[in-house]
Write a structure and sequence with these properties.
48% helix; 12 helices; alpha/beta; Rossmann fold; four-stranded parallel β-sheet; 344 residues; 9 strands; five-stranded parallel β-sheet; globular; 2 domains
Length: 344
C-alpha cells in the first residue's frame, strides 16, 4: 500500500489517469447527454410512469433521476434492476432500456419480452446486440459515446434520461437548463478534489485515506443516499473494497442496531444543506452514538448536490485504488460470473 497521496505521476499512470480524466470530464458528459436526449425520437405525451430498466452502472442514472423526481415531479420514475422488467408495464408507460455495452443479457431479454407484449421501449447503449436488435425493429435508439469505462458513462446516461423525462413530464426543476447549470459548477468543484490538490485540502483524498484504516460505513439522506450507493459500488469495482450504506431515516429503524458487532468500521455522513431539521437532529444523535469520523457536506441545489457528490464518490474510489496500488480496470470476479452465465 502506498504511504502518501502526493503522487506526481498519477495522471500518467495508465491504470488511473484515463479514469480520473473521465471524472474531470463529467461537466461535459452531462451536457452531451442532455443534447442527445433532447433530439431522440420520443412521443411527447402524458405517461403513467417513466420506467428505466438496467443493471449495475447502467441503472444508476435512473436511480439518480428517480430520487430527484420524487422531490420535484408528479410523474414517477421507476427503476428496475431485476431479472425481468415489471410485468405491469404497458402502453401508458415510457420505458428506457439502458446498457452501456449493449451486451447485458438481462436487458437484451427485456427488449424481446417487451416488444412481444406490444411495448416499444427506447434503447440507450453504445453498441452491442442490444443496439443492433433495437435498430432492426425500428425502435428509438440513442447511441452513447463509445470507448469509455462503462461505469464512468453515468453523467452522459443521466443527461440523456433527464432530457427525455423533462419532455414527457414538464418538470422545470429537472429541465436541461437546470442540469446544465449544475454541470457547469462541477468544473469549480473539481478544482477542490483533483489530484493536484494536497491531502490536507482535498476532501476526496481524506476519505480515501480513512478507508485504508477500516471498512467505510456511510450514512446519507435523500438524494445523497444515491451518491452513497455510487460510492459503495465504485469502491467495490475500482478499489476492491467493501462499503456499508445506511439511508437516513430508514436504517435508523433497523440495521443501525447491529453496527456495534463490527470492528474497524469507519462511520461518515454525507450531509446536505437542504436536509430538514428532523434529519439534522438524527445526524447529530448519530454523531454522539457512533463517533462519526467525518461529515462530508455538499452545498447548493438538490440537483447540484447530487451531481457533485457523485463526482466526489468517483474520485474517492480512484484515490483509494491508487493508495492500495490496485488496478480499477480489472474486475475479475464480475468477469468470471459473466463468462459462467454466458457459457451456461
Amino acid at each position: 500500500m502506498r504511504s502518501t497521496f502526493e503522487f506526481t505521476d498519477l495522471m500518467n499512470d495508465e491504470r488511473y489517469g484515463p479514469m480520473i480524466k473521465q471524472v474531470s470530464d463529467q461537466p461535459v458528459l452531462y451536457k452531451i447527454g442532455l443534447v442527445k436526449g433532447a433530439k431522440v425520437a420520443v412521443e411527447e405525451r402524458p405517461i403513467r410512469a417513466f420506467v428505466v430498466y438496467g443493471l449495475g452502472g447502467s441503472a444508476m442514472p435512473g436511480t439518480m433521476l428517480a430520487s430527484l423526481s420524487s422531490t420535484f415531479a408528479k410523474t414517477p420514475v421507476i427503476v428496475s434492476s431485476g431479472s425481468h422488467p415489471p410485468s405491469w408495464i404497458g402502453g401508458q408507460d415510457l420505458v428506457a432500456l439502458v446498457s452501456y455495452s449493449g451486451k447485458t443479457q438481462e436487458v437484451i431479454r427485456a427488449l424481446d419480452l417487451l416488444t412481444k407484449k406490444g411495448v416499444r421501449p427506447l434503447v440507450v447503449a453504445s453498441g452491442g446486440n442490444l443496439l443492433q436488435f433495437a435498430e432492426e425493429q425500428g425502435l428509438s435508439v440513442l447511441k452513447l459515446t463509445a470507448g469509455m469505462t462503462p461505469r464512468m458513462s453515468l453523467p452522459e446516461m443521466f443527461g440523456v434520461l433527464a432530457a427525455i423525462y423533462h419532455r414527457v413530464s414538464d418538470c422545470e426543476e429537472l429541465s436541461s437548463e437546470t442540469i446544465s447549470s449544475a454541470a457547469e459548477r462541477l468544473t469549480t468543484f473539481w478544482r477542490r478534489i483533483s489530484p493536484e490538490v494536497k491531502l490536507e485540502e482535498n476532501e476526496a483524498k481524506k476519505c480515501a485515506v480513512m478507508i485504508s484504516e477500516g471498512v467505510l460505513s456511510v450514512f446519507a439522506w435523500g438524494h445523497l443516499s444515491v451518491a452513497a450507493l455510487r460510492l459503495r459500488n465504485q469502491l467495490a469495482e475500482n478499489a476492491k473494497l467493501p462499503c456499508v450504506v445506511h439511508e437516513v431515516p430508514e436504517n435508523l429503524h433497523n440495521t443501525v442496531e447491529g453496527l456495534s458487532v463490527f470492528r474497524g468500521l469507519k462511520h461518515i455522513a454525507l450531509r446536505s444543506r437542504n436536509e430538514p431539521h428532523d434529519v439534522s437532529l438524527q445526524f447529530n444523535v448519530l454523531s454522539s452514538l457512533l463517533d462519526l469520523e467525518h461529515n462530508f457536506t455538499f452545498t447548493g441545489s438538490v440537483v447540484y448536490e447530487l451531481m457533485s457528490a457523485i463526482m466526489w464518490a468517483d474520485a474517492v474510489s480512484l484515490y483509494a485504488a491508487a493508495l492500495r496500488n490496485v488496478d480499477p480496470r480489472e474486475i475479475p470476479t464480475i468477469s468470471r460470473i459473466r463468462r459462467a452465465i454466458e457459457g451456461g
